[in-house]
Amino acid sequence: xxxxxxxxxxxxxxxxxxxxxxxxxxxxxxxxxxxxxxxxxxxxxxxxxxxxxxxxxxxxxxxxxxxxxxxxxxxxxxxxxxxxxxxxxxxxxxxxxxxxxxxxxxxxxxxxxxxxxxxxxxxxxxxxxxxxxxxxxxxxxxxxxxxxxxxxxxxxxxxxxxxxxxxxxxxxxxxxxxxxxxxxxxxxxxxxxxxxxxxxxxxxxxxxxxxxxxxxxxxxxxxxxxxxxxxxxxxxxxxxxxxxxxxxxxxxxxxxxxxxxxxxxxxxxxx
Length: 271
Ligand code: NDP
Hints:
The chain is α/β, with parallel strands linked by helices. It is built from nine helices and eight strands. β3, α3 and β4 (81-85) form a beta-alpha-beta unit. The relative contact order is 0.14. NADPH dihydro-nicotinamide-adenine-dinucleotide phosphate is lined by residues 35-36, 38-42, 59-63, 87-89, 114-118, 137, 141, 164, 166, 209, 211-212, 214-217.
């Protein structure tokens, strides 16, 4: 597949030449890292970035089989992809994975911080462990990956980061205080980091989805989902592709003057 025109339409960045088992000498390739790309929103987003000419680094934690199957599917379709196991809450694992990605696939131009967990609990029943796991995964994970990706982006004066927040980080959810706090933190991190690295040619934005039909909703009954749908002005739940489309836009050159923003997509649930 000739993806050159698509690549050109995307980031107006210098391509890097790397020699690795994945990329032949002299071949130009741009790399995107998507955390939690084994399934759900991350997988849809990763596919979209491949279609736009990026080599893809799939970061997963537990779903090794799904990540590998997805990688094989992408390779069969003519894309470049590789899987990397890392718990985003561990800076050690994240740094090691990013070093490996750079060696395999070259300079990282796009980072999508998507990996996340959710949990419902009354506030008074949130234990220290639950709080730590939520903050460490959903907020510290974003910090760890941004910190691993940024030195090269700054050196090269280019790069795009998209963080997946949540409408609950904007408006707060009852029985999800720890989740809401972590996602509000992601929004704060996005805005502050955008101010700091804008002069280095790097854009940092967040996408803030509403209710998106993925495994994350597996604890909801059909009746709960129907109710959520009826509460949504557009009368449907979101699909992972809705989020992928928003990330595609924010990564593209069409968004070249957009940084530090939160793009909400929730069917009108929060206005
Ligand atoms: P899923 O539960 O379907 O997928 C979660 C993904 O995150 C998996 O790929 C999982 O990897 C990965 N992950 C979880 N913890 C870690 C970790 N510590 N290290 C590395 N990877 C990890 O969720 P969604 O696709 O629905 O959610 C993706 C993002 O979108 C999350 O940040 C979520 O908060 C956000 N979001 C989702 C909404 C929804 O309604 N679905 C709404 C608003 C925001 P593995 O399986 O390999 O462990």
